[in-house]
Amino acid sequence: MSEIVPSQSSIADSLISSRLLVLQSKRLILASLERRLQRRALDSLRDRVRSLREETANAQERYSASILRWGSPEGPEYWPRLVETADRLYTKMRRAVVEMPPAERYQLAAEVEMLEVLVEGWRKSIRASVTAVA
Asked: What is the rounded distance in angstroms from the CA atom of residue 130 to the CA atom of residue 79?
């Protein structure tokens, strides 16, 4: 009897889909808890909401990372996630430039500027593709 071996793309799609389902579930549970908290401000609920917000943010990060790691650049979620990740990196790098010794500051500043140019180019491409579809 022959075994069915899943393809790499189906495994990647399954991983991304499972991360999206986890994220959506956490968002739904969080929305429900927040509504309950508005009706009854209990400390235990407030703590649970705070904790679930962190879990939801982590689930968002894992979903975004899985799209970048296993997703296809042709997919609709890939480029916006790449821009989002590059924006966070850009922000961290800009903050780090100030703290660097002068000798290293120039090189990092140049890399920050290069990243900024790349991100702006990606944004223009995304806008152009959205405009072309609309």
From this structure: 12
| Per-domain residue ranges of the chain | 7-71, 72-134
Q: What is the pLDDT of residues 72-84, one digit of tens each?
A: 888 888 888 999 9
Nearest C-alpha neighbor of 94 from the set 82, 85, 105, 84? 105
| Count of residues making up the chain | 134
Residue-wise DSSP of the chain: -PPP---HHHHHHHHHHHHHHHHHHHHHHHHHHHHHHHHS--HHHHHHHHHHHHHHHHHHHHHHHHHHHHS-TTSTTHHHHHHHHHHHHHHHHHHHHHHS-HHHHHHHHHHHHHHHHHHHHHHHHHHHHHHHH-
State how far the Cα of 53 lies from the Cα of 7, in Å rounded to an integer: 35
Checking if the pLDDT of 134 tops 70, the result is no
Confirm whether pTM is higher than 0.90: no
| Short-list 53, 85, 92, CA closest to 66 | 85
